[in-house]
Amino acid sequence: MTRLPWVLRGVITAVAALLTVTAASATAPAVPDPRAPGDFVALSAVDPTIIQEIRYFTPHDFVGARVDGYRQPMCILTRPAAQALHRAQRELLRKGYTLKVYDCYRPQRAVDHFVRWARDLDDQAMKGEFYPRVDKTRLFDDGYIAAKSGHSRGSTMDLTIVRLPARPTHPYVPGQPLVPCYAPQDERFPDNSVDMGTGFDCFDTLAHTLDPRIQGRQRANRLLLKSTLENLGFVNLAEEWWHFTYQPEPYPDTYFDFPVSQASLTGRN
């Protein structure tokens, strides 16, 4: 039997080792996504009557694209927050209204997406609607974007009120002309909610819940949402009329990163 030259034997050995590593890498299981703790629930399982319009699953948000971590258009919350929201819904239904949520639990990877977007000063595609009067270089300093969000703790939600019977929301078409979020209701994006003076996620001081320039029916609508929720243990963020946190929070110091999907809630230990 002819002996292979030692150089050729070395090459063959190296190739075999490389193929072994490649095969092992190909068969290695992917790192599974984290799962939600057992006391996180889908809002629809607690109250299916609350309308859900999860904006970050769509391109109609200040980023202009679906946000990382939103795999399904669903609201996930800690059970106490969802149950308190159900009690608020019962009160509003008696008055001829329904709640509508725009966002609930938000994974940390989504917050990281916001931070990357905010640092990309060349991406101003959605400025005309969501931050017409704010220079993008100011988003961190002015508090519109931060590296951590209370939403990631599971008891914070963004929401509004819709008068019954609820009309469907007008579909957003990417590339359509953008109108400032603080424009009169009949001019800005045709959301089916009551008039709150600005649209959702409006980066403007007019979105401050008690801004004195908001009067009449717009102020009454904000106060209806605020008083209904505060009477049930929610706390409003003064800079955003749509932002509420249920307290006491079950996870006041934990920022979760499981995806927004039914799979995050199933198969839990």
Structure overview:
The chain is of the alpha+beta class. The chain is built from six helices and seven strands; from the N terminus they run αβαββαβααβαββ. The strands form two sheets. The chain has a five-stranded mixed beta sheet, with helices on one face. Strands 1-3 form a two-stranded antiparallel ribbon. The radius of gyration is 24 Å and the shape is globular. The termini are far apart.
Topology diagram in text:
Layout: H1 6-27, E1 40-42, H2 43-46, E2 51-52, E3 76-78, H3 79-94, E4 97-103, H4 108-119, H5 127-130, E5 156-163, H6 216-230, E6 234-236, E7 243-246
Parallel strand pairs: 2-4
Antiparallel strand pairs: 1-3, 4-5, 5-7, 6-7
Offer a quick outline of the entry.
The chain is of the alpha+beta class and 269 residues long. It is 27% helix and 11% strand.
Main sheet attributes: strand count, strand direction, barrel closure? 5 strands, mixed
Structural class: alpha+beta
Low-confidence stretches: 18-25
How much helix, percentage-wise, in residues? 25-40%
Give the key terms.
alpha+beta; 5-stranded mixed β-sheet; two-stranded antiparallel sheet; 269 residues
